[in-house]
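Bug report (template v2)

What were you trying to do?
Predict the complex of my protein with magnesium ion.

What happened?
Run completed; filing so the output is reviewed.

Input:
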Amino acid sequence: MKRRDLIKSFMPLAGMWGLPSISRAAAQAASEYRRPKLRITEIRTAEVRVHGYQVHVRVYTDQGIFGHGENTDSAEGSVPLIRSFSRMLINQDPLNIEAAFERIRTSGIFAGAQAGQYITALTAIEMALWDLAGKALGLPVYQLLGGRVRDRVRVYCDSGAGRMTPGDERSLAKLKLIQDMGFTAMKIDIDDGMDPARFDRVNWTASNGEIEHMLAKIAFVRETMPKSIDLAIDMHGRYDATTGKRVAKEVEPFKLLWLEEPVPAENIDAMRDIRASTSTPICCGENIFLRHGFRELLEKRAADIIMPDLSKCGGLLEGRKIADMAHTYYVPFAPHTVTSPIGSMATAHVGAAVPNFLIQEWHWVDSQPLWKNWVKEGEIIEKGFIRLPERPGIGVEMNEEGAKKAQVPGTPWFEPAPARRG
Ligand code: MG
């Protein structure tokens, strides 16, 4: 008996039981490609403040399922932008994700669609469409991105707020916490605009005193933590090329996982000069958007490791494309991630699917009550790894009661958008 005949034989049964879901599933399965027919009906948002301002997006369909996405960092302005994108999404088939992405991106080439807030707003939609596609097809997102090459992705703990001060009780307690949680890698910030050894609040050259303080912080963490825990350091692009080169050289004995953004990433030649001057691996890219932003960086061999933020730079498929591009230069991919468990799990799907994945960030060590209650599945990090779920879509669902604690006061919570004027 052919599959189609088999399905037909079930149809009267489904009707007899009065189970519309079975009937609908059978009707969908009866189509030649077992492809559900969906139509986008509405898009709604919720605004939260945890790691700065972040926007959650839901894309609804005519069949009751919705996809959930999230963006961060350059999320300001996302709500009106997403509302303006709606006219290009309503009534469209949500499974044609590339088409939706390109329609929105190319319609904005005179409106800032090369980078920044426009792309970050689009990113939240893109992520929601992948969640939706997975739910509609009954597959985890990594399966739609080429399948997984690993079952779990390694996560490093960013040490969060509060600078590391050698010998300080709070710093020691934070380091113990990170160790006890089972992380195999961590990151600290070594830039300090308030350092008393800084002579000038505006000039970007670090004094000898500042560099000594940076080295002392690194030495303190390195001596406190076991050697098996990798250490990365971040300078947030706050220094000039002279300082960047000096610090990269001075930290060589620490055998760091990486030195992050000693200078802003937009001057690719300056980053390349620093990389060429040191054996310390240089990582950058959390403020770079789309494949187009990473092309020259890779071509000029300006970074040892790239760190696109997939909740900001274009989304999950764009993240996969960036990672693949990097792979042709033998450059590993270590996504910057400061989102909730939803954006973090979405990022992990890409990490599971690309061969050159190195490690993914976790930045909620100071917001753990929110983190643990954000999704119905609870804690998603186990001893420094995220295990990929078998559930369809991103595989985690927001626990509204928990997430609502971070709602930006006075903003809608997945409520219908007001009618657009003008
Ligand atoms: Mg950084």
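What did the reviewer find?
The chain has a mean pLDDT of 93. The CA atoms of residues 309 and 332 lie 14 Å apart.
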